[in-house]
Design goal:
The complex is a heterodimer.
Chain A lengths: L1 H16 L4 H7 L13 H31 L7 H13 L2 H12 L3 H25 L3 H10 L3 H31 L12 H9 L3 H27 L1
Chain B lengths: L1 E10 L2 E11 L4 E6 L5 H8 L7 E6 L2 E2 L5 H6 L1 E5 L10 H5 L1 H5 L4 H14 L16 H13 L5 E5 L7 H18 L2 E6 L2 H7 L2 E6 L2 E6 L1 H6 L4 H7 L4 H7 L15 E3 L4 H11 L3 E5 L5 E6 H5 L2
Parallel strand pairs in B: 3-8, 3-9, 6-7, 7-8, 11-12
Antiparallel strand pairs in B: 1-2, 1-4, 4-5, 9-10, 12-13
Helix pairs in contact in B: 5-6
The chains are: A mainly alpha, B alpha/beta.
The complex binds adenosine-5'-triphosphate and magnesium ion.
Chain lengths: 233, 305
């Protein structure tokens, strides 16, 4: 809890205060005539980044948990192997490559970015959903069925609550990775905290890179701390 | 109450239960006994349709179970398994109330029932708020039995419920179950591979081998007349006389008048014999709980079984 508060304060301070730190960056990088990124406000970038992460993570979570539930039902058992393989492939596939393939098909913009992030984010959720649901002990499951819980009740009242910690751990990994990966979406013209990083890299402006990276890192730490609090609850 | 008629079940082409016929009368305590893999659990699970038979018919209270909704059928049958299978994320009280909750009982009725069952199973009321991981094996199994009894089912299906317990806890729970059977007159089908347990508790013992019935009779008859060598091996040869004695209450060999050291009147003849050997006497005075003399038993009397 304390960690969460500290990171949150730092995050808010950096988002709204970074624009005022020009003297600091000017001193650190005397060769640069524009030591602070001013093309967009950091708050606007943060908001856009959060929106992209929120949407793509939400889809990845729904898809991952949904498929995880389906392939652990008796009727879906045959598809479990395929689902796991596809998800693993999705994660070995670099998001940049997904973007490179998606852009010629769908053009620049949010759509290809969301798709790339979803593909990349499904695996940890799916894997942990399958692990969590399969981890429910056979006697507990048998007792529930034998007592007269229908399939939906077994899932909702027994399996999902018992699998929640494991599923939550998968969601946490997925979202944290997503926060970092979303920065790459700026290569296809989406406003994110990756924009200062990309501009900084192409214009040899290390101060921009530092400012973008600082905000992405703080965001990841804050969200991670929030998951920590949720996991303890 | 439960009838099997020519039931068969195979797994992966291997027959596990074959031409199986069984009649369990209303109020009976039926023990299914046999070696590991003889099909005991499979037979039990066919009763509540956790497993569907390949052939034959199973009737419950006169109705073919295949015509009943499996979920609704199971709510009328208590089910207890070896490892209890308590829900680890629920309190003891909520575990016990699982089926009443499914049946939509109101709060007051559910709470009263949980309290009643905890008393019946001799569980400390303070345990109601505990989580299953805080319970001992014996307590967990008591909760398992209480949960199975919660909605007052017509029958109780028990699959080696006391298999994982130490001998002392096990004996205590056996006595508890015998008392519950006496008091509620519920039909009980009980899987075990412990012959002493079967003989002590059951009114009907069904000996299985490779999914077939070797013998289906009363405990006394099973001991006195094992149908074949297979059953004989199961009941044991050398201590059959002692097992027969253990089926006999001491009050059945009572002779008038006090004679010898005192023993309580609720033990069996085997325990009485053991006591005689221990004390090197051939007579024991039998007294009731108030200390009142009911008579005595003599060694010669025990012998004429
Ligand atoms: N779902 C299943 N799928 C495949 N084989 C099974 C299944 N259930 C049981 N069997 C097999 O059927 C046979 C009988 O099993 P069952 O569980 O009825 O035996 P049991 O008498 O209860 O044995 P135990 O005393 O070890 O519990 C065993 O050989 C077992 O491997
Ligand atoms: Mg078994």
């Amino acid at each position: 809890m304390k960690r969460l508060v500290v990171f949150m304060v730092l995050l808010v301070a950096a988002t709204f205060g970074l624009a005022q730190t020009r003297p600091l960056f000017a001193a650190m990088f005397p060769a640069l005539d524009r030591p602070v990124y001013v093309q967009d406000s950091f708050a606007a970038l943060m908001l856009a980044h959060l929106a992209l992460v929120g949407v793509s993570s939400l889809i990845a979570i729904v898809v991952g948990i949904g498929i995880g539930i389906l392939v652990t039902r008796r009727a879906g058992l045959a598809f479990r192997g395929i689902a796991e393989t596809l998800a693993a492939m999705g994660q070995t596939f670099p998001p940049v490559a997904v973007l490179a393939i998606a852009v010629p098909v769908m053009g620049f913009g949010t759509m290809p970015a969301v798709i790339a992030l979803v593909i990349y984010g499904v695996l940890p959720v799916l894997q942990n959903t399958i692990a969590g649901l399969s981890g429910v002990s056979a006697p507990v499951r048998e007792a529930a069925r034998g007592m007269g819980f229908g399939p939906l009740r077994v899932l909702a009242l027994v399996e999902l609550p018992l699998a929640t910690p494991v599923i939550l751990a998968g969601v946490r990994v997925s979202v944290i990775i997503n926060i970092g990966t979303a920065a790459i979406a700026s290569t296809v013209g989406v406003k994110t905290l990756g924009l200062p990083i990309l501009l900084g890299l192409s214009a040899a402006n290390t101060a921009y890179v530092l400012q973008g990276a600082l905000l992405v890192g703080l965001l990841a730490l804050t969200v991670d701390a929030a998951f920590d609090v949720a996991a303890r609850a | 109450m439960i009838d099997f008629d020519g039931v068969a079940k195979a797994f992966d082409g291997r027959a596990v239960v074959q031409d199986f016929n069984l009649h369990v009368a209303d109020g009976a305590f039926c023990a299914l006994i046999g070696a590991s893999g003889s099909g005991k659990s499979t037979i039990l699970r066919m009763m509540n349709r956790l497993i569907e038979p390949d052939a034959g018919r199973i009737r419950f209270a006169g109705q073919d179970v295949a015509d009943l909704d499996p979920t609704l059928l199971r709510r009328r049958m208590g089910y207890v398994i070896q490892s209890a299978g308590l829900f680890p994320h629920w309190s003891v009280a909520r575990n016990i109330a699982a089926v009443p909750a499914l049946l939509g009982w109101d709060r007051a009725r559910t709470q009263a029932r949980v309290a009643e069952l905890m008393t019946l199973l001799r569980l400390d009321p303070a345990l109601g708020r505990a989580r299953p991981h805080e319970l001992s094996g014996g307590q967990a199994q008591r909760v398992g039995v209480a949960r199975a009894l919660a909605a007052d089912p017509d029958v109780l299906l028990m699959d080696e419920p006391f298999g994982a317990l130490d001998p002392i806890t096990r004996a205590a729970l056996q006595a508890e179950l015998a008392r519950i059977h006496r008091e509620t007159r519920k039909t009980i089908v009980f899987v075990t591979h412990d012959m002493d347990e079967a003989l002590q508790l059951a009114t009907q013992v069904v000996v299985l081998e490779d999914g077939r019935v070797l013998q289906d009779t009363s405990p006394a008859d099973l001991l006195a007349h094992p149908a074949n060598a297979g059953v004989g091996a199961f009941v044991g040869r050398l201590d059959r006389g002692l097992k027969l004695l253990s089926l006999l209450a001491i009050t059945e060999r009572l002779e008038p008048g006090a004679d010898g050291p005192e023993v309580p009147d609720d033990i069996d003849c085997r325990s009485a014999l053991s006591r005689m050997i221990e004390l090197s006497v051939d007579r024991l005075t039998v007294v009731d709980v108030t200390g009142q003399v009911r008579g005595h038993v003599a060694l010669a009397g025990l012998m004429r079984s």
